[in-house]
Amino acid sequence: MIRGQKLEKRYGHKRVLPGVDLAVPHGGFAVVTGANGSGKTTLLRLVAGLAAPTKGKLAVEVDRSRVGYLGHEALVYRELSALENLDLFGRLYRVAERRERAGMLLERYGLWESRNERVSTYSRGMTQRLALCRALLHDPSLLVLDEPYSALDDAGVALLDLELEAAAGSRTVLVATHDPTRLDRLATTRVRLA
To answer: Which of 44, 55, 81, 116 can pair with 8 through a Cys bridge, CB separation 3.0 to 4.6 Å?
Structure first.
C-alpha cells in the first residue's frame, strides 16, 4: 500500500527528512520512531498527502478520501460542538448514516454526554478523543496517526489500544510514537529515524 524510496523533504536549505525508505503492505501496521526533529511528522504528512517529497519516490495506493489522519493539531472547529464537528466532516466525506456513525464514535470515546458542548470548553484529552473520532469517522483504509496517545488519560489510552488492535490487519496503519514498546506486538514494519 505504501512504498517510499529515498524520501527526502527540505524546507529551504533545511533538510527535515533524510532519504527514508518505507514499505508497508495492505493491512500492515508500521511504527515510526525517532527523536524530536527526526522527521516523523514530516514522513506522516507525506504519506497522508499533505506535503510532497523534495526528492525520492512515494506511492500510496489509496484514494486520499480513504485516509484518516491525526496530527499534532486536532483539526476540529473549536466554536462548534463535537456533534456539529462530526456532522460537518461526515458531510465532507459523504459518510452514509453519518449521524449514527458520529453517535457511535462519541459514545465509544466517552464524549456522548458532552456532545453538544463547544469544543473550546473541552480539555486537551477530550479534544484528542474527538480528533480520533474525526479520523475514524469515514472508516478509512489508511490510518495515519502522529503521537495519538498525546494528552489521553488512562481510559483514553485503553480505548485507543483497543481501536489499534482492531485495526491491525483490517486496515493499513502508520503510527509515529515515542513509545514503540506499546505497539511492538502490532507492528509489521518498524521505521527508525535518526
So the answer is: 55
